């Protein structure tokens, strides 16, 4: 892939001289697309993304009311963002009809919930956060939890982590935001130690029992559904609004782009186990064995 034609997060054109010096001291690799990765604090980043991580670590001041949605790339991020936005918008949007001024009807979920290292802190350690002031700031990240440790340990902010059983090429861990198992274990361990501040969710469970899981998410975020809301069908209305079928059909998600990625490309099939259509049984078995070995003793199982 031509670096100039790659999405901005994959390039190395927005890094400072100081970050350049740091990168020269780090372990580096080239991925299957020819893009350069470096390992920082045990996690692999593209150079521009690393700049955003460093800016975040030096400048982010969390508020106790903040909500951070954490996910590994392509692990249900878009759906989690849409569901959380719909939950938090309930006091203002109760009918969920096509006539509503609901933010999901006129902006992509990634535009409503910006990524800390890719959007908010991509170019500066002191961005203007004034537009995120009301009433609870909502952000996302792909960083493992230990990358946010300094900010997290001084705040009561809520962190929601979601996991999908991915079967892509991560056998040696040298992939974007990898190793995958270290990423998910950081949030799994935190939810065991701090269940009031970190919620661990599985994409497969969200697909299998969406009503139960969205109620669980609402409880964690401090905005549980009232009996009246449940009886009037608000839960089902939110699930319908946030379904991948509905979101992908909205005009705002058929056009436009973010970080040089077309909005329509954020919507996959969303099917559990779809990897079986792309990997041989031998490849799938090998990755299953690697994950089983890496998660041994943690209590986390697929």
From TrEMBL:
- What UniProt keywords are attached to this protein's entry? Transferase
Q: Which InterPro entries match?
A: P-loop_NTPase, Sulfotransferase_dom
Q: What class of enzyme is it?
A: transferase
Please list the residue ranges annotated as the Sulfotransferase domain.
Answer: 64-161, 163-299
Q: Does the keyword Secreted apply?
A: no
- Residue span of the signal peptide, if any? none
The keyword Transferase appears for this protein: yes
What are its E.C. numbers?
2.8.2.-
Q: Name one Pfam family in it.
A: Sulfotransfer_1
Top-rank taxon of the source lineage equals Eukaryota
Family from the record: Belongs to the sulfotransferase 1 family.
Protein name listed in UniProt: Sulfotransferase
Q: Which organism is it from?
A: Brassica napus (Rape)
